[in-house]
Specification:
It contains eleven helices and eight strands. Helix 4 packs across helix 5 and helix 6 runs antiparallel to helix 7. It has two domains: about 250 residues, 3-Layer(aba) Sandwich (Rossmann fold), CATH 3.40.50; about 45 residues, no CATH class. The chain is globular, with a radius of gyration of 19 Å. About 40% of the residues lie in helices and about 15% in strands. Strands 2-1-4-3-5-6-7-8 form an eight-stranded mixed β-sheet, with helices on both faces. The chain has about 325 residues and is an alpha/beta fold.
Length: about 325
């Protein structure tokens, strides 16, 4: 690997691994509640290296990323996860470390509270990238953004807020890759929304309790119902209104080359299971939308991986091979 490589995280401690998984899951389900109570378990968005947050200033970044490249890849995990989701099982490698090996990009991993509104995280990510570019040890010439699941939506939201705030970092983004991101919403969240409404109509205390428990899920999860990216999608609205799509269309930024990865549970993409539930959490039309909506892309910018479920898309060699192919073709 190139000088100053991002060392693979230490996965030798199972207790640390489970704690990592637990904090991600807890924040995904109850992150908004934890933040509202100023609970210490609420995650603050930050760059993470070796499972620790990195203060974004020139001195700390120079220590953590010696030999930092002018090309930087920022990876954003999905719902109920942490940056560990990018790690290939049993190897310690990741898309980030492989991009460093093959393209001399410095990988930067972000951890955030996935229970918050996507637009809140989008604005926070926008500010984080502004600080990162300003404090990076060398002048950044190329930013590549890779988001898994909700992480892809956070990237899209951040790019929009960068334009609204007049931040220049977005002009450095040459490539954005959305891995299993539900651009048109997630079916399980739609089901949860409808189920809570049905329970609420039943005149029984157990049914009402079931409704209340379902509705306790985080606002971040509820934003996935229709992939809300901006504040206007939720401000002043009832988050538990039944299947009301208030989503604002957010076009992709034209200076960025955008790429989409999707998966299905079955090897046959035309199987009824693949058609109904896609990669288990995101249906193919939501992960690879086209035909007149706000994220229609050329055919050679989208790739379907039959047989790869939602989580495996974040750490699979076939997905990386496709990512490498795209980046080499783009120069």
């Amino acid at each position: 690997m190139a000088q100053g490589s991002h060392d693979p995280p230490d996965r030798s401690n199972p207790e640390s691994n489970w704690a990592d998984v637990g904090i991600g899951a807890l924040n995904g389900v109850l992150g908004d509640y934890l933040q509202s109570r100023s609970n210490d378990l609420a995650v603050e968005m930050a760059v993470h290296h070796d499972n620790k947050p990195v203060p974004i200033d020139a001195e700390n970044l120079a220590k953590v990323y010696p030999g930092a490249s002018r090309r930087v890849c920022v990876l954003v995990h999905g719902l109920c996860c942490t940056e560990s989701t990018w790690t290939f099982p049993g190897t310690g490698e990741s898309y980030g470390s492989l991009l460093q090996r093959d393209f001399e990009m410095t990988p930067v991993f972000v951890r955030y509270n996935t229970g918050l509104h996507i637009s809140e995280n989008g604005r926070s990510f926008c500010q984080l990238l502004d600080q990162l570019v300003a404090s990076w040890p060398t002048e950044i010439e190329d930013l590549t953004l890779i988001g898994h699941s909700m992480g892809g939506l956070v990237i899209r939201s951040a790019c929009l807020y960068a334009d609204r705030l007049g931040q220049d970092w977005v002009d450095l983004v040459h490539h954005a890759v959305y891995v299993g991101s539900p651009h048109l919403g997630a079916p399980l969240e739609k089901f949860g929304n409808a189920a809570a409404a049905v329970f609420g109509k039943i005149p029984d205390p157990i049914a009402r309790l079931a409704r209340d428990l379902i509705n306790r899920r985080s606002i971040g999860i509820k934003d996935l119902r229709y992939a809300n990216l901006v504040d206007e999608d939720w401000l002043g609205r009832d988050p538990d209104a039944v299947l009301q799509n208030t989503r604002t269309e957010v076009p992709l930024r034209t200076n960025i080359q955008h790429f989409v990865v999707a998966g299905t549970l079955t090897q046959n993409e035309n199987n009824i299971i693949a058609q109904m539930i896609g990669d288990a959490l995101v249906r193919v039309p939501s992960a690879m939308p086209g035909g007149g909506n706000d994220i229609g892309l050329p055919d050679d910018h989208v790739k379907l991986f039959p047989g790869l479920h939602h989580m495996s898309l974040a750490h699979h060699p076939d997905v990386y091979d496709q990512l490498e192919t795209w980046l080499r073709a783009e120069g």
